[in-house]
Amino acid sequence: MTDLEAPLVCSLLLQAPPGEFAQVVRDLQALVRDKELLRHEAARAGAQRSKSHFPPVRINKHTVLVTHYNDLGGNCFFDPQDKLSFAFDHLSRVAGKYRLHDVLLDEGELRKGALHKDLEAYVSRHFPASNCCVFQKNARKTQIFMACIEAHHYQPSGCWNEMYVGCCLFHFRIKETMPFPFSQFLPELQVNITNIRKIYVIYSQFLNTKQ
């Protein structure tokens, strides 16, 4: 693979339809002679796609989303339910190398648990084949909760696939006994709809609504 071929291969991998990344990698194996560089580009593109597509992974009978919000670096991610870190293979989509991850059990953890429970009830009613996760971080005197939703409907034998990815950010004042009225509500929406016979559409929008 030449210096010109590598960016082209990476671009093709990043444009793979939802749920078909592995198939595109297999197809490129028939076209690209340098298998080692292909694996390198596939791993790099897979890591980039995962953080925006929120792929679900099963851990201890529950589902965790792989996102940039729970990225610990080095292809390791945080499971907010079991308080574990795990390694994630972006090509096979398999988790492993589980380790305990220290988390402070404070009021923020209680809020996150309550938000996750309500979010699960919401997505089960409105999104078929859906998964969700809630992540938390502190910034100065504000708690920020990231509520992430992933829903998909893949039909490899049909003519189209679809994927929905959404994320809402909630900001709370830390020292308030009651949650601060959503001072910032930042919904981020990405919808990928693929119709192989006609068109491939990616829609992404970021809204900032202050109340």
Task: Walk me through this protein's architecture.
The chain contains four helices and eleven strands, in the order H-H-H-E-E-E-E-E-E-H-E-E-E-E-E. The longest helix has 20 residues, at 107-126. Helix content is 27%, strand content 39%. The protein folds into three domains: 1-51, no CATH class; 66-102, no CATH class; 107-206, Aspartate Aminotransferase, domain 1, CATH 3.90.1150.210. The strands form three sheets. It has a five-stranded antiparallel sheet with strand order 7-8-9-10-11, covered by helices on one side. Strands 3-4-5-6 form a four-stranded antiparallel sheet. A two-stranded antiparallel sheet has the order 1-2. With 211 residues, it is an alpha+beta fold. Residues 177-187, 193-200 and 206-211 have low confidence and may be disordered.
SSE blueprint and pairings:
Elements lengths: L4 H10 L6 H9 L5 H19 L2 E4 L2 E4 L5 E3 L2 E4 L4 E6 L4 E7 L6 H20 L3 E10 L2 E12 L6 E14 L11 E11 L3 E8 L5
Antiparallel strand pairs: 1-2, 3-4, 4-5, 5-6, 7-8, 8-9, 9-10, 10-11
Helix pairs in contact: 1-2, 1-3, 2-3
What's this model, at a glance?
This protein is of the alpha+beta class and 211 residues long. It has helices at 5-14, 21-29, 35-53, 107-126; strands spanning 56-59, 62-65, 71-73, 76-79, 84-89, 94-100, 130-139, 142-153, 160-173, 185-195, 199-206.
Please describe the structure with a list of short key phrases separated by commas or semicolons:
211 residues; alpha+beta; Aspartate Aminotransferase, domain 1; 3 domains; 4 helices; globular; actin capping
